[in-house]
Amino acid sequence: MSAAKIVRLADRGVVSITGRDSEKLLQSLVTNDIEGLGEGEARYAALLSPQGKILFDFFVTRQGESYFLDVSAESVGNFIKRLTFYKLRSDVIISDVSASFELYAIWGDPADAFPVDWVMRFSDPRHSVLGVRLMAKARSSSSAFADAESETALREYDALRISLGVPEGGRDYKFGDAYPHEADFDLFNGVSFSKGCYVGQEIVARMQNKTVVRKRAVKISGAAPLTSDTDVLLGEVSIGRVGTVAGADAIAMLRLDRALEAKQKSETLTAAGVAVTVDDIALERYAASAAARASTALPSS
């Protein structure tokens, strides 16, 4: 295993949910199964609009009877407002506790690699290679963490995430604009298809069981370094948008049906003038899904 690396996730905040009905409230709202979550475990999940679009994504972990949610820092205020809207008479207290924590990711060989005074630690539930995430006591980090604050650390972490094809909300898809399947929640342990109802559940279930998901966040590679926030073009037609970039690799929200058709016809996709290719596994997965749906479709009358 590679040497341990650490990055401070300065763009993340923490929301606490305490009270007798905390688990019940979360279980009724979010995409993943929260019941029986053990200490030291985490779930990756989202809170959806009634139309099934992702409003917020987050990690849920538990300490005692309290739940702590690792969420985008700029979304904390609106996230709390949304949770408060749903809590009604539930016995819960929802608080922004971001000032009490610093959040880190450690990957490579993370076992006690850094002497951080962590309060909560959990394996990243999206992919084992992403290592562990820490909620550490604010201002507890020593000079040993100087590298964690660097742009280099953030670039290396982004490069790791991109290599795995793992998108990030707000960067690789817009909140309020993407369905969980489009943001790969079905691929990276972000949604349960066996739990009871939650907000937006009917749409998610329909996409899982009846729909070919034509648009997804996927890894792309360029013939030269790529630029974020540029269109992926087939000829002059936009079929996607580049998100996080690491040199010549990136995550893009892309129409896979159009990308597969372009590959079959040997047509070139470009982004800001750079020729790009799409991750073969993503295209193969889409082709298999489309073929399976076609084989089960009822014949026309």
Write the layout of secondary structure elements.
Elements: E1 5-8, E2 12-18, H1 22-29, E3 42-48, E4 54-63, E5 66-72, H2 76-87, E6 93-96, E7 101-107, E8 118-123, E9 132-137, H3 151-164, H4 201-210, E10 215-222, E11 231-234, E12 237-246, E13 249-255, H5 256-264, E14 269-271, E15 274-278, H6 280-296
Antiparallel strand pairs: 1-7, 2-5, 2-6, 3-4, 4-5, 7-9, 8-9, 10-13, 10-15, 11-12, 11-14, 12-13, 14-15
Helix pairs in contact: 5-6
Task: Characterize the structure shown.
With 301 residues, the protein is of the alpha+beta class. It folds into two domains: 5-164, 2-Layer Sandwich (Gyrase A, domain 2), CATH 3.30.1360.120; 213-296, Elongation Factor Tu (Ef-tu), domain 3 (Beta Barrel). Helices cover 23% and strands 32% of the residues. The strands form three sheets. It has a six-stranded antiparallel barrel. Helix 5 crosses helix 6 (280-296).
